[in-house]
UniProtKB/TrEMBL annotation:
Transmembrane segments: none
Keywords attached to this entry: Kinase, Serine/threonine-protein kinase, Transferase
Stored CDD domains: HATPase_RsbW-like
Stretches assigned to coiled coil: none
Record Pfam families: HATPase_c_2
InterPro entries the UniProt entry points to: Anti-sigma-factor_SerPK, HATPase_C_sf, HATPase_dom
PANTHER family referenced in this protein's UniProt entry, alphabetically: ANTI-SIGMA-F FACTOR RSBW, ANTI-SIGMA-F FACTOR RSBW-RELATED
Name of this chain's protein: Anti-sigma B factor RsbW
Molecular function (Gene Ontology), one example: protein serine/threonine kinase activity
EC number: 2.7.11.1
């Protein structure tokens, strides 16, 4: 597969998430990831997109979410970017490693598991909040992947 990024822009609305999941499935299966790895990536990417949809833009003022998929040898890098305010995502990410890993699941606020879930399902997760929020999700090909 060509190492150039595949870029998709969707309106920041939940009814477009099926397009994102279909594109991810096509890209990841073409790269040779297993069904299980693709399902993990679909959950993580859906969480990142849902954060952008729910928290980036003021109520009633729609925006766009941009996804970039880059396959480079054995690594799939997926970037989810919005142009919104992003304060909620930044706060959740800064609390995730120290608070969530040491707390019982019942003590975590509703909606507070997105970053934690992304970190559990992906090999790396990076969050940047400058002029919007950018979440970079990285999944490496394991040596024993069975192609879809």
């Amino acid at each position: 597969m060509n190492p150039l990024p595949i870029i998709i822009r969707i309106p920041a609305r939940a009814d477009y998430l099926d397009i994102v999941r279909a594109a991810l499935f096509a890209i990841a299966s073409k790269a040779g990831f297993s069904y299980e790895a693709i399902e993990d990536m679909k959950v993580a990417v859906t969480e990142a997109c849902t954060n952008a949809i729910r928290h980036a833009y003021e109520e009633g003022f729609g925006g766009m979410v941009e996804l970039s998929f880059l396959w480079d040898e054995q690594v799939l890098s997926i970037t989810v970017k919005d142009d919104g305010r992003g304060n909620v995502v930044r706060a959740a990410h800064s609390a995730a490693p120290s608070v969530l890993h040491q707390s019982p699941i019942a003590d975590v606020a509703v909606g507070g598991l997105g970053i934690f879930l992304m970190e559990a399902l992906m090999d790396e997760v990076h969050v940047r909040s400058e002029n919007g929020t950018e979440v970079v999700l990285i999944k490496r090909m394991s040596r024993n992947e069975e192609m879809v």
